[in-house]
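[Automated response] Your request has been received and processed.

Submitted sequence:
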Amino acid sequence: MGRPLSRRAIISSCLTAFTLLVFVCFRGQSQSTTQLNRKKVTIILTSHQTTGHRPSWLLSSLRQYTSPEYADLVDRVILVWNAVGARPPNVKGVLVLSPAVNSLNNRWVQTLPHIKTDAILNLDDDIAINKAAMSCMFRYWSAEPWRLVGPFVRRNEGSEYVMDELTNVPGSVHTMVLPRVLMLSKAHLMEYAAPGIQPLRDGVDLDEAHSDDLLLNLVAARNAPRPPLRIALPEKSVSDYGTTCSLLDVESSGGLADQTDRSSLRSTSLAKLLSSLPSAVLSESNEVAMCEAGQRSRVFTTAVSLRRWREMAVGDSRVLCPSLKSTPPPERTGPGEELQMYCPERDAAATDWVDTLERNPICGESRSSSKEKLALFESAKHQCGAWCVWDLRATGKEGWHRTEKCFEKFKDDEHECGDWFHQRPKLILAK
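Generated structure:
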């Protein structure tokens, strides 16, 4: 006989069983009088842009997912057209919903009556994934349908929303999945649309932080026995138009998340939502589901290299946005090549920043110090493009300030960089 279960283990098992039972009940309610299709996926895209580059990216995605190639996996493509009064794209096979009010809630609420599958893939209008990526997400989600599944994640420290780019720190924990690429259940949408959540949904439309995804993660956490699942999609399976092309033409490519004070706005919203939903606990996880070409089994890990995360996306602007003028980044070796991996050179400004670090990093007396150069280099890898590079070995307001030709060391609370201390990544590097 095995060892008897402890009281804590028994309680934990009972709570897990209860949350699963609650989720199954939600799934049962969502079926109504017809059985949900559990072999296909409903795709939801939301857009309100009528000018710039996003309409062409959206049109490409709509045509991609309604093509015969996806017929065995995609049940329906729904476009939530939030551009009130404007004519939506006309693509055969796409169900267009034109709500009377532009609201981020529309994608989670207005779509419900039109969804005939259990699985839903939500995509932003500036990103697309191929069939291999979609199939892999569906496979992992099907095994644990109460979990939100996606490649782009964030975390919180209490009520503070942390904006760090988690691909730069292998093994980082996450607590939330972003909706850019997100697979979830129709039951999650039903929870979000529940009458008791109405006051919080109303607040989303008044919120500068666009907090519908925060609310979705919190609502999902109430009945999920495990945290959201982060997933590393196959190589070159993600067409990330927004990240790759927006730097070349911000005015015509930017989105709602382009806010200088976004971290502060999101933290304020998260604090309000957490106080309103005390039963929602955002649990940490460093688990990553792996998707590789030809893979059929489910494989999990806690260590994914930065190179592997970068390989997930097509990051060449000459492929994704050929109409925008771009210059291929220079080929680098040694430290410059490593820095380029952490900080992709998607525009001339990024290349100039890497050039400065590679050729002439330190100003003044510390210029010849290899230890100081290494400290700047290691800290800069986690602060791509920054004019104020914080010394991640320290906790105070010290680091290096970029001048026209080099980076100048500072250690002064009164330095001008102090106004931007809130942008310091939430990690400490070993000295």
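Summary generated for your ticket: The CA atoms of residues 397 and 414 lie 9 Å apart. Confidence is low (pLDDT under 50) at residues 1-20.
If you did not submit this request, please reply to this message.
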